[in-house]
């Protein structure tokens, strides 16, 4: 039913679909990337290098081996047809939701989150989105295209409306985007210092977590299409992330790793650890 | 009228549009690339590194400084919309043709040639295409998409029909593609050894030259999306190219340089020299 | 009159010379670099990659599009003749000053600052220099050569004398250099913690700002000739920089980006942002 | 029974063990590499990048899809214990032979061939070895160690004796090694020009084919531990290889790809094609 | 007596063996590395790049030129024989100790520390080890091998016993390793915040200092086999290091730099500075 | 007397100055390089990587171990002063000549040859130069500088005059340079096909051999400042070189390796082998 590319599995995520509570799938799409492409290689590279990390988290004192997680592989996408790609992601997400499991998406570029949220928003009417990113992603369009990794949060806002999107770490955008955010989203410039006061608003809500890894400072995460200096350190980001632990997550994604700009392999190591920590939180 | 990105100009190609016989423009598009993207960076990188080559060709004993060539810059493309991209290329080609000049396209991926040929084929009913490439590019579609860099020659055949396409250096494709070629195109496997006998067929015709630089062996041209060992050496390719000198070219392109896979800069140096030699031939 | 190499312009800096208040020019010189050369490629790489940043600064809440800035291109230097290079820089600076504009120099290695200051010091008798750097640059000579990127601040001191040079972030030098600094310059080891107390001394003076980007920690700025661990983070550096905003700057430079040691492109992204922030401050 | 690391499979080699005539397994071992290590990454990188090649060979006019091949994955080796590694390889080879199938080994460094041949030589008393390599590999020991990638052919000679080893492309070794070869092996210096006259000697014999990919010139195969300029071109090597087609092969390996020295990916692309051609020959 | 590979010497460490108080030697061994090998290249790369740093430390206000240090070169190791390697290291350490000098080892992978400590523990019955690392290194074995860089601290514990090992910066390991540490070593997770309270316990003891450079965050130290995000910054690490200054060190090592994953050269620059600071402390 | 930087020695070249017939010294100078600098790193990189080649040449069936060669190290140059650099080279060459030995220079950029030839031409009035290169190097000046790597052969012609310079492999230059060569030097375009007929002219003369390694095709030698596709293969170049064996060489150099553009290390491996073969010929 689904056209899947198989590869190695994320470390220990070798459960069958039926027995799993979380289902990982990859969306190797970078068709609207505006600067340096290559996020298509992220899901397979993350899986291959996951062999290099421990399954045990000294941060959460928990072990991936104690969870049942299925890693399906990557969706096989056509090249050059953005709409078909998003439809495939939505369809897979629906399949996962219908079976009572939580989707965990490995991007690809940020636009892929839209496919997941289209499916989730139908199921959960109170869906909120926690968004870590360097960029606002709130453009109305990019050179005339409304489906773009630079406008994905605007498209998500089209679906969810005001007050449901919480943005952290943002340090790049147009004047118009920052003005839009003031009225329609919660936007925390530069870091996540407002997280504590926001947490109470999110309690009891269904939460989707979308992590554009370029929220991290490019010193620790150079392997991305549009690196933006001045980002969060790994430790600060992890602390913010773990402070969300008690929320009710219904899905998550990590996006925008571009392995071919990661000669040292450090960005991929970062991605692997973030995947581990988020999987342990879900 | 045209949305153009300016940059450095290809060495000595600084004539005004009006006074030029050849017009260079870039098509920084890699939206259907099936393996490693990044050809979008080729036109600007070629221009920047063209400062490193001489304008004089000891092969043709001719100098670029003695020609009037205009380098317009790059077309500014939307990301993720293949059809709009091709339309922009056709429109620019028409503009150049209407002013009595010859187009010289810097790709981008190979699909961009389709935009140029759509315009040329309307003007020249006897148009023939000389095609250097490692790949047949004769798929009917790629994962359901008919507009793909892997099917561009098939799309061109849709326009031109049998006996008008001459392929050299081909060493990769499906069984079906090679079978199609047997009946519908002239295909020279591995090298250009049949060129001599074919030349008489091409005399007097209007010729478009499309050079997928991966026709060269990846030892000398590693910086491309899908490197195919077993290709032509630079010297053999150049000799084949120069043997075409007396034909009546109405346009040309070079495509598929992917600079971010060219750490040594050698692939770009190759591209610069091929551009120089083709410009001197046109 | 000036021998100029043209390229892309720094983003939005497309005003004509006459209408501009700031004039950017590049000094692609690395002739006295003692370890890894290649800063000659910095100005053009900064310009090309500036397309990847936004023109709007969320730090200063200001937009480059609202300023009139001219980017002239690079001076064309002879190779191997340091004195002629410095003379060309001084001459261009004089030209800019005579037209009532402020010079903004893109290096090149640090010695290029000397050419600018020679011109500025003639015009402004109270000129002070704010100097961000990892290195003291206070050697009397380097292997017998007095014109060296390791002795540029000493040469500037030769012109300006005691108490006019303010150095921040310094973490590398000989014992002699640190001893010299104690008596003749203000030197803040390791960071810019003394900046606040110094600011009052600088008010009302004409200030030249010279930023050797290796003041930043090599985690965020690896692309430089002599990386020195233990530097300032991007955020701390930016905060220090913006605290200077009310001073009266008469010119500025940024130097020592070496793009070929910046495989990830992050160092260039840093340089682009620093250029944007300084341009908005001038 | 076997400790296996799973990953992607070599393109189309997805048959079950039982139904296959050829069984691929990886030996990610580089423990005796004398210069640049890293061949441990070769088997998985070859599999992952095999997606980038066609299954159809225009050289042999045959398609991998028409064969039944099983790709088991990689043996999981201890680090730092050479003998245990070789034993694991022998055991797996025996397993494959006992089931009437042919082993195809993806190295790893060249020493891994010894494990296969130990098993094969027990089964086939007339076993001969065809050896493509830049190096003689005939040292008695390397810094006192008899089990070394620089002495693997000497160890194989210990088993097979005189006149059973045929070496091609050899261009590096000590004086002693070349002298030993004169008396005990057939050694073709620099190329494979003697292949034609040797073929008749090999007819009717059981042949093992071991290809150290550094036999290729480093222009086309830079990604190896000890690159040796002056090697065979891809086309000449392929022609030599295909001339062996009628021999009776009982197994084969390709070794010494070191992917982390293959930034352009071209060496891996070469390895993939060699694997395809050899699989089609077996 | 010792088989030594000579190269450049660490900057200013050109004293004769007899006149020196500290003796540097390299252990270019990476035979048990579990992920990315290549630390064998570290000692020579550190020496070569040491020319790029100053001999004067502005942190300690001391100069390497004022010390007598001998840099012997690298031990010449066999490949693939872990035990012989460790024996060679022990023998050299004994030689240094017998002459009343302190050993300073440049690794190589972390297992090499075992060779030094075997010799030191015989001489100093109260030997304690200060261990900076990202990893616990407390596995009983790795895939059956007890001599592994992942179990080196366990092997050292086998010699020293409880309460003699002090671990800082640890952020990766199995659940079992962390549990072992709770009972048998002092382990400071993530950073060195407990250092102050521990210092009194160490006073008067003989101390060996082993620095696995991956204790540093991979933003500043990407060039290592198993990068672990979330590490110490260079400044925090240096501060911790210098706080140990008054202890009585009897030897030290730095290990796990892997230069071929350090394209920018920054990791090597870090290693050089750490070597300088430790040499000034000994 | 000479300011020398020591490092590793070229493999086996460990004889004392007095007992040697050939003396190697390095000239780490790249001050007039017009495109990509970095040849300053060549001599030390060649020495370090020479450990990776055999001392025995299967081409000449001779072994470096049988010769007495002294490798002095690198001259320590000031940065930014071309004339002082050349003087230091001449002085060292004189020193070698006065002691009855032959100089072998490791560049550095091509201009360094001028320093050697200035000394040699004084001693040998009939000196001829055999010059392998991609470039004519016959410019009168480069942007006004007469001492440039692009005009080094012109400067040598100033000393030697007509008919004494023999150029091979040349494939890049201005029209003027090729015209000059027609009248004043022997220039073999593209390859060395005229070598055979020229050899008799050179018999009995004192010959200096200068090899700009960019004469090789950049497929096998990418690590150079100005790569020029279309060059000689390693095997053809070696064959040409060895055909000169009977001439009476009085010195030689190899220049223009730029190691930082040689990520795979292959260019350095080529340089090492060329050094070995030339040393065996001298």
Gap from first CA to last CA of chain A: 27 Å
| Overall pLDDT metric of chain A | 96
Biggest chain-to-chain interface with counts? A-B, 25 and 25 residues
Biggest sheet architecture of chain A = 9 strands, mixed
Structural class based on helices, strands and sheet pairing of chain A: alpha/beta
General shape of chain A: globular
Radius of gyration of chain A: 17 Å
Low-confidence stretches of chain A: none
Assembly state (oligomeric): homohexamer
Major sheet: arrangement of strands of chain A: 1-5-2-6-11-10-7-8-9
Helix and strand element order of chain A: EEHEEEHEHEHEHEHEHEH
Beta-strand percent range of chain A: 15-25%
Percent helix of chain A, as a range, is 25-40%
The tally of beta strands of chain A, per DSSP, is: 11
Helix segment count of chain A?
8
Descriptive keywords:
homohexamer; 282 residues; alpha/beta; nine-stranded mixed β-sheet; two-stranded antiparallel sheet; 20% strand
Task: Give your account of this protein's structure.
- The structure is a homohexamer of 282-residue chains.
- Chain A is an alpha/beta fold.
- In chain A, 32% of the residues lie in helices and 20% in strands.
- Chain A has 8 helices and 11 strands.
- The first copy, chain A, has a 9-stranded mixed sheet with strand order 1-5-2-6-11-10-7-8-9, sandwiched between helices.
- In chain A, strand 7 (128-132), helix 4 (152-160) and strand 8 form a beta-alpha-beta unit.
- In chain A, helix 1 packs across helix 8, helix 3 (112-123) runs parallel beside helix 4 and helix 7 runs parallel beside helix 8 (266-281).
- The relative contact order of chain A is 0.18.
- The mean pLDDT of chain A is 96.
- Chains in contact: A-B, A-C, A-D, A-E, B-C, B-D, B-F, C-E, C-F, D-E, D-F, E-F.
- The C-E interface holds C 35-36, 170-175, 178, 189-190, 217-220, 222-223, 226-230, 261-263 and E 51-54, 56, 58, 63, 217, 219-220, 234-235, 238, 263-266, 269-270, 273.
């Amino acid at each position: 039913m689904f056209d899947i590319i198989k590869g190695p599995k994320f470390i220990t995520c070798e459960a069958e679909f039926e027995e799993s509570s979380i289902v990982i799938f990859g969306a190797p799409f970078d068709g609207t990337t505006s600067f340096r492409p290559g996020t298509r290689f992220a899901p397979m590279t993350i899986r291959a290098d996951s062999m290099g990390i421990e399954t045990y988290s000294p941060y959460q004192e928990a072990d991936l081996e104690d969870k049942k997680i299925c890693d399906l592989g990557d969706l096989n996408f056509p090249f050059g047809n953005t709409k078909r790609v998003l439809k495939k992601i939505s369809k897979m997400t629906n399949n996962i939701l219908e079976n009572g499991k939580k989707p965990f998406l490995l991007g690809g570029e940020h636009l892929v989150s839209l496919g997941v949220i289209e499916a989730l928003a139908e199921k959960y009417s109170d869906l909120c989105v926690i968004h870590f990113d360097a960029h606002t992603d709130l453009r109305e369009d990019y050179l005339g295209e409304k489906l773009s990794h630079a406008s994905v949060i605007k498209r998500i806002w089209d679906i969810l409306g005001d007050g449901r999107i919480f943005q952290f770490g943002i340090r790049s955008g147009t004047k118009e985007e920052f003005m839009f955010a003031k009225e329609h989203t919660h936007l925390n410039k530069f870091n996540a210092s407002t997280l504590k006061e926001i947490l109470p608003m999110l309690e009891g809500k269904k939460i989707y977590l979308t992590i554009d890894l370029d929220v991290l400072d490019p010193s620790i995460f150079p392997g991305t299409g549009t690196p933006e200096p001045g980002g969060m350190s790994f430790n600060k980001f992890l602390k913010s992330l773990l402070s969300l632990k008690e929320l009710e997550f219904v899905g998550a994604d990590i996006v925008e790793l571009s392995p071919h700009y990661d000669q040292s392999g450090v960005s991929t190591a970062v991605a692997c650890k973030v995947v581990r920590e988020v999987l342990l939180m879900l």
